[in-house]
Amino acid sequence: MNQQFEQVIVHLPALSESKDTQLITRYLSGVIYTVKAGTLSANNILTNIDKLTQQQTPIIGAILNNVADDELETEETKQQLIHQNEDLLS
Predict the structure, then answer these.
(1) What is the dihedral of CA 75, 79, 82, 86, to 10 degrees?
(2) Which of 1, 2, 7, 89 is 20 to 30 A from 71 (CA-CA)?
(3) Whole-angstrom Cα distance, residue 45 to residue 83?
C-alpha cells in the first residue's frame, strides 16, 4: 500500500485487548499512541509503550482524548482568565 499512497493510517484495537495489534505494529513505519483520559494508569501506559519499543516500532506521537472540560485548565490558568476578564470589564 505504501507504493500507492503517501500515508496509510491503520486504526488498531488497544494493545491490552489484542495480540494482533502487537503483531501488526511490526510492519508499520510508526504509531501514534492514543489514550482515553482516565482509563489507564501511568504504569500501564509505560508498559504499552515498552511493548511497542520491543517491536522496534517508532512512536511518532501521542494523543490524550476524551479529557473532561474541567481538566483542561489548571487553577492558575483559570485565575489568569478571571483577571483578564475583570480587566476587560473595567
Answers:
(1) 170
(2) 89
(3) 37
Q: How many Cβ atoms from other residues are within 10 Å of residue 57's Cβ?
A: 19
Count of residues making up the chain: 90
Task: For residue 72, give the DSSP letter.
Answer: S
User: Cα dist. 62→3, 25, 45, 47, 70 in Å?
Assistant: 26, 15, 11, 15, 21
**What does the pLDDT look like over 30-57, one tens digit per residue?**
999 999 998 999 999 999 999 888 888 8
Confidence (pTM): 0.68
Q: What kind and span of H or E run contains 24?
A: helix 19-25
| Structure-block grid coordinates of residue 2 | 505504501
Three-state SS at 64: strand
CA 29 – CA 4 distance, rounded (Å): 15
